[in-house]
Amino acid sequence: MPGRLSRLTRRSEFLRVAGRGRKAARPALVLQALPQSEGPLRVGFTATKKIGNAVARNRAKRRLRAAARLTLAEAPPPGWDLVLIARNDTGTRPWDKLLADLRGALRHLGVLSEPST
Length: 117
Description:
The protein is α/β, with parallel strands linked by helices and about 120 residues long. It has 3 helices and 5 strands; from the N terminus they run βαβββαβα. The protein has a single domain, classed as Ribosomal Protein S5, domain 2 (2-Layer Sandwich), CATH 3.30.230.10. The chain has a 5-stranded mixed sheet with strand order 1-4-5-3-2, with helices on both faces. Helix 2 crosses helix 3.
């Protein structure tokens, strides 16, 4: 099993990434990325009430965490703060398409340079 990712936990960290970072929208998620001069990759996850009730929001965040772990944990690119925001399709999108959405957004923002296999 891939290793753990460092997490963004404070509201101020999420707001800093949202305010100063770039974003890429895909059907299953929105990715916000802010390059940092130093430090490890840090990831935050969020789902608004537009997604649904607490069960739906938690399911969406669980799927985003699992996708991020598979995609980033083996060789995390250093120096990035990322926020993954769930969308309405996050909880029901087929797993392979969810992973493709995440990889595409990461490549679009320059977090991943090569397609990962």
